[in-house]
Amino acid sequence: GSGVNSLESRPRLMAWKERVKKKLGEELFDQAHQKLLEAKGLQQEIQNSPHLQKLQPVFVKLFR
């Protein structure tokens, strides 16, 4: 992961996560978590896309 435990201050969510991990098994839980992390990085990838940069003036014009 990112090394940051975002659930640290959320004990109920932390407990839920542990219950889910126990029920699914650690391997399946980690596989699902990996897909979520990949999707999270997709937003940054799209924002840095040169194709999007070319379209930005068009979008700005349309949505002003």
UniProtKB/TrEMBL annotation:
Q: List the Gene3D superfamilies.
A: 1.20.1050.10
GO molecular function (one): transferase activity
Where on the tree of life does the source sit, at the highest rank?
A: Eukaryota
The name this protein carries in UniProt is Glutathione S-transferase theta 1a
Q: From which lineage does this chain's organism come?
A: Eukaryota, Metazoa, Chordata, Craniata, Vertebrata
Which keywords fit this entry according to its UniProt record?
Transferase
